[in-house]
Amino acid sequence: MLFESVIFGPIKSRRLGISLGVNLLPATAKVCSFNCIYCECGFNFTDPKAHLPSLKELETQLEQTLERMVADNKKLDSITFAGNGEPTMHPQFAAIIDATIRLRNRYYPQTKISVLSNATMLHRPAVVAALNKVDNNILKLDSVIDATVKLINQPVNPKFDITKIIEQQRQFNGNLIVQSLFLKGTYRGQTIDNTTEKEVSAWLNAIDYIRPKLVEIYSLDRIPPISTLQKVDSAVLQQIADRVEKLGISTSVIQ
Ligand code: SF4
Questions:
Q1: Ligand 1: which atom is nearest the Cα of residue 38?
Q2: Which one of 79, 113, 139 terminates a domain?
Q3: Is the peptide bond before 10 cis (omega within 30 degrees of 0)?
Q4: What is the pTM (predicted TM-score) of this model?
Q5: Is 85 a pocket residue for ligand 1 (Cβ < 6 Å)?
Q6: 142 CB under 6 A from ligand 1?
Q7: Helix, strand, coil proportions of the chain in percent (round to 5)?
Q8: Separation of 115 CA from ligand 1 center, angstroms?
């Protein structure tokens, strides 16, 4: 499933309420620094005609949409950067966040700005500065065991190092929400299960080190691109959440 426009929705989100989506990736390709086996957009693929939306396109389309929604007296809880891949890969991401904050303040001052990111661009200071300005800086951390990350998230960069991501998430000094998806199944003949004791205890150590303001725990919702993956029971998710709470960190299980 691809989003075919820069602005999409609003949709009712499990986590964010009434959410207006922003897709900073091409409408005709899936572009991400990860290639998660559960991604709702499917696996990465290119298209020769694919192009990134410009800052101007984003500003024009977002302003037109917000203007129309205000005129129609519509409620809006979140302007959410998600879409066909990783939003922070856009070279003008920082300027786009500044423009979005300006428009939000003008049309919907109570609405949150949320970014769903896989945290792979945190080596760019401009990305970190921009994420520090949004209300919901939501960063992925599905596992802290290298082999599992490579299996579940399939980072595109062969030098990807999960320990660097953990350090970079910690540098937000709590101004982040960690989102973690738990799943089971098989992929290419290998067993996948990031709910084992080895996985969860290593992940909890990293959560304790990062100290986010919130941890969001969830499992598969829509149909993933491969059929050998299974949803994790909500009771198991709740047990993991209880262990996070014991660290003194707020936790939410997304059903
Ligand atoms: S990081 Fe997000 S967009 Fe990228 S492959 Fe994973 S789920 Fe899909």
A1: 7
A2: 139
A3: yes
A4: 0.97
A5: yes
A6: no
A7: 35, 25, 45
A8: 13
Whether 74 and 186 map to the same domain: the answer is no
Average pLDDT over residues 188-203: 96
Residue 47: give its domain's CATH number: 3.30.750
Pick from 148-162, 221-235, 238-252: least confident? 221-235
Residue with CA closest to ligand 1 atom 8: 39
Q: Output the domain CATH number for residue 185.
A: 3.20.20.70
Model confidence pLDDT, tens digit, residues 97-127: 999 999 999 999 999 999 999 999 999 999 9
The answer, yes or no, to whether any atom of ligand 1 lies below 6 A from the CB of 8, is no
Identify the domain containing residue 23 by its residue range.
1-139
Euclidean distance between CA atoms 248 and 232, whole angstroms = 24
pLDDT band at 2 (very low <50, low <70, confident <90, very high): confident
pLDDT, one tens digit per residue, over 48-85 is 888 899 999 999 999 999 999 999 999 999 999 999 99
- Per DSSP bridges, beta strands 177-181 and 214-218 are parallel
32 lines ligand 1 (CB under 6 A): yes
Burial 158-190 (b: 16+ CB within 10 A, else e): eebebeebbebbeebeeebbbbbbbbbbebeee
Domain count, the chain: 2
Last residue of one domain, picked from the residues 69, 104, 139: 139
Kindly state if the Cβ of 155 falls inside 6 Å of ligand 1.
no
Question: Are residues 195 and 170 part of one domain?
Answer: yes
